[in-house]
Amino acid sequence: xxxxxxxxxxxxxxxxxxxxxxxxxxxxxxxxxxxxxxxxxxxxxxxxxxxxxxxxxxxxxxxxxxxxxxxxxxxxxxxxxxxxxxxxxxxxxxxxxxxxxxxxxxxxxxxxxxxxxxxxxxxxxxxxxxxxxxxxxxxxxxxxxxxxxxxxxxxxxxxxxxxxxxxxxxxxxxxxxxxxxxxxxxxxxxxxxxxxxxxxxxxxxxxxxxxxxxxxxxxxxxxxxxxxxxxxxxxxxxxxxxxxxxxxxxxxxxxxxxxxxxxxxxxxxxxxxxxxxxxxxxxxxxxxxxxxxxxxxxxxxxxxxxxxxxxxxxxxxxxxxxxxxxxxxxxxxxxxxxxxxxxxxxxxxxxxxxxxxxxxxxxxxxxxxxxxxxxxxxxxxxxxxxxxxxxxxxxxxxxxxxxxxxxxxxxxxxxxxxxxx
Length: 421
Ligand code: LLP
Fold this sequence. Notes:
Blueprint: E1 4-7, E2 10-13, E3 16-17, H1 18-25, E4 29-33, H2 34-47, E5 53-58, H3 65-73, E6 77-80, H4 83-91, E7 99-101, H5 108-117, E8 121-124, H6 127-140, E9 144-151, E10 173-174, H7 178-187, E11 191-197, H8 208-226, E12 233-235, H9 254-265, E13 271-274, H10 278-281, E14 285-296, E15 301-305, H11 314-318, E16 324-326, E17 337-342, E18 351-358, E19 366-369, E20 391-395, E21 398-403, H12 408-412
Parallel strand pairs: 4-20, 5-6, 5-13, 6-7, 7-8, 8-9, 9-10, 9-11, 11-12, 12-13, 15-17
Antiparallel strand pairs: 1-2, 2-3, 4-14, 14-15, 14-19, 16-19, 17-18, 20-21
Helix pairs in contact: 2-9, 5-6, 8-9
Bound molecules: ligand LLP.
Residues 58, 60-61, 79, 102, 162, 199, 202-203, 237-239, 275-279, 314, 318, 374-375 line the site of ligand LLP.
């Protein structure tokens, strides 16, 4: 469910007509709904409510500080993977003890930053990282709380670029070696073992791979406890998928996921953490764009729009589907025709959709890409020297620009010409 709906024939974000935002901000832009972010966060907290838990939003999916503040004010924790994300979480008012630090390549500087600023736990991904963290913590006179990310060798059955829990992936340590790695961790002076971490991939549309992984984690918890370790916390990662196309089978709901978590690991008495990104932010955002030209090709018609692959790279990168709808609701039963919807960038990959049925389109028509809140703005670039596009947050009947569109001068001002040129 989301809060981007037609009212009186025009698309609204909550109670704001998107055309009003277009009039003030221009196109293209990202628009997020506070109500959808809140609702999706709460679905997870409700789903996990029978167990002690913390929902840590995966900042990588949508990292605007205003969005983080919406979630932080609800009590959310944050999952960060870089100094920049850590700084964003803190700037949004998230206390250190609600921040978990994930990622395969944490630098010593990042470790220092988090240890000094406050951290709930590091999710350690390798033995060298574990040793480095112990050294950094010891030098600071601190003890780093850790889980170790294990790779459970489970096929997440998702896109190969976002599958992370299979043998051969770069993530975590093989579950078969977990006991020896925990044994070493226990000897390192700067570390305190508190639990186990697992994350098997993103956009999962079935609970089965999660269930297989969590059952292995339940076994491992008991083995590690028998070995004398304290395992009080299980970080079960993110990854629950969202419905990208309205007419497809919907992935499992957070409530089903919560019941499965309870079934698989609920008896262990651990505090449960999860790191959802997409399910909270994905359908809480849209990308609004305008048709520049309608170009009639030999065997197809193109909609050339003012958003491009630099603004939303998911279709080019993963072949992802995003529903595309006009801001003005077409009359029921209106004729549709197929368009290739493309951006202005000079490569064929700058194609959002092929043969997508839309009602009649003319120059200047406004369209919205649905489900663009997650991995949209955060993955954008200035390729073709196109400035990053604005982000807008809506709550009820008001909206605010939460990241302004840079002027060309601001974009150019970041480059410097050496005086010897
Ligand atoms: N935790 C860890 C350790 C992760 O690596 C990820 C995502 C998440 C949590 C959040 O996963 P989510 O709940 O959002 O599925 N750019 C790709 C997705 C990359 C996901 C990377 N890791 C896309 O646009 O589909």
